[in-house]
């Protein structure tokens, strides 16, 4: 058993459970069918994704479990803010701003579809790219190589693209202005992090400049 990989999966599920309880706290401990469907799926996706990744490429999730790395200071700051907003703050805000009682409508269904779609992109990226750590750094200790497979043949940072899709999804699932503002802040952090990480890789990762000539778009095909 790969203990470090298992610990990462447990941490991921625990983070989502905490997010659920923060939502409950914000919503005064009330839940609607809409809320139950979302959080049940949200936690189930973490479990299923963890199992798939463990079987397909446990090395990736083992390395993603690292807490202390030699990543740049800007990455530590942006990652900390992102982690707090995306896993915890946004759900507490959703509970306060939206409350419970929303019906399962077509916007909710579109949001759930986008949630699943973003998960699929992330999973595929994690399976093909063993160097996909949680932090942004030049992995000289692991002899990092450029990944050009799967979604990396279309965009250079597919997991960040998946986060942007998730930001749209969560805004549709919990349609409160406070949630949309928080999701926009998360998206802004991801865009800044993408730019900084892409610049770092161009300067320090062998073969990455050539890769950027073949795959021109960082996040959104035909746009950026």
TrEMBL record:
<dbReference type="GO" id="GO:0004671">
    <property type="term" value="F:protein C-terminal S-isoprenylcysteine carboxyl O-methyltransferase activity"/>
</dbReference>
<feature type="transmembrane region" description="Helical">
    <location>
        <begin position="36"/>
        <end position="56"/>
    </location>
</feature>
<keyword id="KW-1133">Transmembrane helix</keyword>
<keyword id="KW-0489">Methyltransferase</keyword>
<feature type="transmembrane region" description="Helical">
    <location>
        <begin position="104"/>
        <end position="127"/>
    </location>
</feature>
<keyword id="KW-0808">Transferase</keyword>
<dbReference type="GO" id="GO:0016020">
    <property type="term" value="C:membrane"/>
</dbReference>
<keyword id="KW-0472">Membrane</keyword>
<feature type="transmembrane region" description="Helical">
    <location>
        <begin position="12"/>
        <end position="30"/>
    </location>
</feature>
<dbReference type="InterPro" id="IPR007269">
    <property type="entry name" value="ICMT_MeTrfase"/>
</dbReference>
<keyword id="KW-0812">Transmembrane</keyword>
<feature type="transmembrane region" description="Helical">
    <location>
        <begin position="77"/>
        <end position="98"/>
    </location>
</feature>
<dbReference type="InterPro" id="IPR052527">
    <property type="entry name" value="Metal_cation-efflux_comp"/>
</dbReference>
<dbReference type="Pfam" id="PF04140">
    <property type="entry name" value="ICMT"/>
</dbReference>
<dbReference type="GO" id="GO:0032259">
    <property type="term" value="P:methylation"/>
</dbReference>
<feature type="transmembrane region" description="Helical">
    <location>
        <begin position="163"/>
        <end position="196"/>
    </location>
</feature>
<protein>
    <submittedName>
        <fullName>Isoprenylcysteine carboxyl methyltransferase</fullName>
    </submittedName>
</protein>
């Amino acid at each position: 058993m790969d203990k470090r990989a298992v610990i990462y999966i447990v941490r991921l599920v625990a983070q989502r459970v905490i997010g659920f309880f923060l939502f409950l706290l914000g919503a005064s401990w009330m839940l609607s069918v809409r809320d139950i469907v979302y959080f049940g799926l949200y936690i189930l996706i973490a479990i299923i994704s963890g199992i798939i990744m463990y079987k397909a490429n446990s090395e990736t999730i083992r390395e993603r479990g690292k807490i202390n790395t030699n990543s740049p200071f800007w990455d530590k700051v942006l990652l900390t803010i992102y982690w707090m907003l995306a896993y915890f703050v946004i759900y507490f805000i959703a509970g306060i701003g939206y409350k419970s009682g929303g019906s399962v409508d077509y916007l909710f269904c579109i949001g759930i579809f986008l949630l699943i779609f973003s998960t699929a992109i992330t999973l595929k990226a994690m399976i093909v790219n063993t160097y996909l750590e949680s932090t942004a750094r030049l992995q000289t200790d692991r002899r990092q190589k450029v990944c050009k497979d799967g979604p990396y043949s279309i965009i250079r940072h597919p997991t960040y693209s998946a986060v942007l899709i998730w930001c749209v999804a969560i805004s549709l699932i919990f349609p409160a202005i406070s949630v949309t503002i928080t999701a926009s802040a998360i998206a802004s952090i991801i865009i800044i992090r993408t730019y900084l990480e892409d610049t770092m890789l161009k300067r320090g990762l062998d073969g990455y400049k050539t890769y950027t000539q073949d795959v021109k778009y960082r996040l959104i095909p035909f746009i950026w």
